[in-house]
Design goal:
By secondary structure, the protein is of the alpha+beta class. 33% of the residues lie in helices and 25% in strands. The chain has 15 helices and 19 strands. Strand 10 and strand 11 form a beta hairpin. It binds flavin-adenine dinucleotide. Flavin-adenine dinucleotide is lined by residues 17-23, 42-45, 50-53, 57-61, 63, 188, 211-212, 246-248, 250, 254, 273, 322, 331, 397-398, 400, 431, 434, 436-439.
Length: 506
């Protein structure tokens, strides 16, 4: 991608900080809603989508709760709460509608470069796990968003769905699995690049190797954004009426610099992700699914183990993980000073209290750090009993920065979700946190637009309904709309079960 010639002291309507999926989505949406607004994006690295949004830095799961068991928690009375699963699924349907609109209208091409049909499966072991999955399935099977989900405890059927998971397994072991063919693998890096290409073609200025160093509110209410151009070493200032801090792990620092009261007291805790990647093409070819299991007792939600088919640049890959890593960096290409530099008088106590009160997480991280390659393979063997050490290599994925919020007392609260923070006047907004992440980019950016541009919503509503036909409605409550939307998004995004059949029964 070509860098635009950068200009100093320019006034824009919108500045996007960071070249990840969030800025790309917001920029594209605003171009569709208000084509005459001038948009500039600043990215510190020499290409967009090099941090968490890059395909190799995340798991690529189009999160829809078809397989992620942590979205259907078991309550103390033994019942299972499916409300989060329903809202997560609904959020991906919103994202898919927007992507389908872009493809249908020729704004981005080649959906197969960023989204693929890959079955989503849940996998449990032991009597307790089986009872949980069976009960979860009974609750979801008749829900319109989860239609088509299948369940089995039969080893032979599981061997048919996921042969690697049965070869070498004790035939007497109680196991169960659900399968949904509606699952997807998403290459968020490719999607981000497609969206930035569209943005550039429609007049937005995308400046690479420009790091945002500071944000200051001017007397007229606009924002001055101080930049360093890495190519020339020059310091520059750009201004805008609205600034989006979409700098991923770098967002907390810039939110703090903005000085808005909504950012006060927030802290961040970085957790690195690592995966085992299969290097044996014969093993890779034997599996075509994203299979999510249950996290170990006391482990955080982002540690849920999964065995993942990935489709990256047309190639099929197989990954297992995640294994956590620790580094004080907030970005993969960040600085060791990120964590210490984020400590402020206002967040020191919440951050310390999180360290003290989340001993389970601390012990989990220490355990992960001292894990040997053999121990990692043993974890994998719960999924792939015949896995061999020599067929797998350890690869480093992206950094997640979990948000620490001040609680009502002095305790900090460690958040595992995605957090949208914005100034009361809507002139600046930041996106923090990681999960469910990129899959929810579209609903989260619609939420941002609603909160930051409330006076424009009536004017934008007709176009919003074109971008996302279910805008303002819940698909879960509207089966007819769901059927229409589902059929048209699958057609536009080329999501068919043929590919699944081809792969599995080749
Ligand atoms: C291990 C792992 C697995 C994940 N798995 C999934 C998954 O399966 N499904 C899913 O939906 N989500 C997943 N996620 C979450 C998802 O990757 C993120 O939520 C999403 O990519 C965040 O996008 P972003 O645009 O906010 O940030 P990023 O993609 O990190 O982009 C931020 C950009 O801002 C730039 N930047 C930073 N500071 C500055 C600055 N000062 N000036 C200019 N530019 C700056 C960075 O260089 C970067 O390019 C996963 C994340 C991780 C780490």
């Amino acid at each position: 991608m070509q860098t635009s010639t950068s200009t100093e002291n320019v006034d824009h309507d919108v500045i996007l900080i960071g070249g990840g999926i969030m800025s790309a989505t917001l920029g594209t949406m605003l171009k569709q809603l208000q084509p005459d607004w001038s948009i500039a994006a600043y990215e510190r690295l020499d290409a967009v989508a090099q941090e968490s949004s890059d395909a190799g830095n995340n798991a690529g799961t189009g999160h829809s709760a078809l397989c992620e068991l942590n979205y259907t928690p078991q309550l103390p009375d033994g019942s299972i709460d499916i409300s989060k699963a329903v809202s997560i699924n609904e959020e991906l349907q919103v994202s898919k509608q927007f992507w389908a609109f872009l493809v249908e209208n020729g704004l981005i091409r080649s959906p197969q470069e960023f989204i693929s049909s890959v079955p989503h499966m849940s996998f449990v072991r032991g009597e307790e796990g089986v009872a949980f999955l069976r009960a979860r399935y009974e609750l979801l099977r008749d829900h319109p968003l989860f239609e088509g989900m299948e369940y089995t405890e039969d080893h032979a059927e599981i061997a048919d769905w996921a042969p690697l998971m049965i070869a070498g397994r004790d035939p007497a072991e109680p196991i169960a699995m659900t399968r949904s063919e509606a699952g997807t693998d998403v290459n968020f890096g490719s999607l981000t690049r497609h969206l930035f290409t569209y943005l550039q073609e429609s007049g937005a200025r995308v400046h690479l190797r420009h790091e945002v160093r500071d944000l200051t509110r001017r007397a007229d209410g606009n924002w001055d954004v101080a930049l360093k151009d890495a190519a020339s070493g020059e310091r520059k200032v750009a201004s805008a009426r609205f600034v989006f801090i979409g700098s991923g792990g770098g967002a907390l620092k810039l939110l703090q610099k903005s000085g808005i009261p909504e950012g006060k007291g927030l802290g961040g805790f970085p957790v690195g992700g690592r995966f085992l990647r299969c290097t044996n093409p014969e093993v890779v070819a034997e599996h075509y699914a994203k299979v999510y299991g249950q996290e170990a007792v006391g482990a955080p939600p982002m540690s849920v183990p999964h065995l993942d088919t990935r489709i990256i640049d047309g190639e099929q890959d197989l990954l297992f993980g995640p294994f956590a890593g620790f580094s004080p960096k907030f970005l993969k290409n960040g600085s060791f000073m990120d964590l210490p530099g984020s400590v402020r008088p206002g967040n020191l106590i919440p951050m310390l209290s999180v360290a003290i009160h989340n001993l389970g997480l601390v012990l989990y991280l220490i355990g992960q750090l001292i894990q040997t390659p053999k121990a990692r393979i043993k974890t994998l063997q719960a999924f792939v009993p015949a896995a061999k050490l020599e067929d797998w290599e350890l690869v480093t994925a992206g950094q997640r920065v979990q948000v620490i919020k001040p609680g009502t007392d002095t305790r900090g609260i460690l958040q595992f979700g995605t957090e949208l923070v914005h100034a009361a006047d809507g002139s600046v907004a930041a996106l923090l946190g990681a999960s469910p992440g990129a899959s929810t980019a579209v609903p989260v950016m619609i939420e941002l637009i609603t909160r930051c541009f409330p006076e424009k919503i009536d004017e934008w509503r007709p176009q919003l309904l074109k971008l996302v036909p279910s805008y303002g409605q819940k698909l879960a409550d509207n089966p007819e709309l769901l059927e229409d939307v589902y059929a048209s998004t699958c057609a536009e995004l080329n999501l068919t079960s043929d590919r699944v059949e081809e792969q599995l029964y080749a």
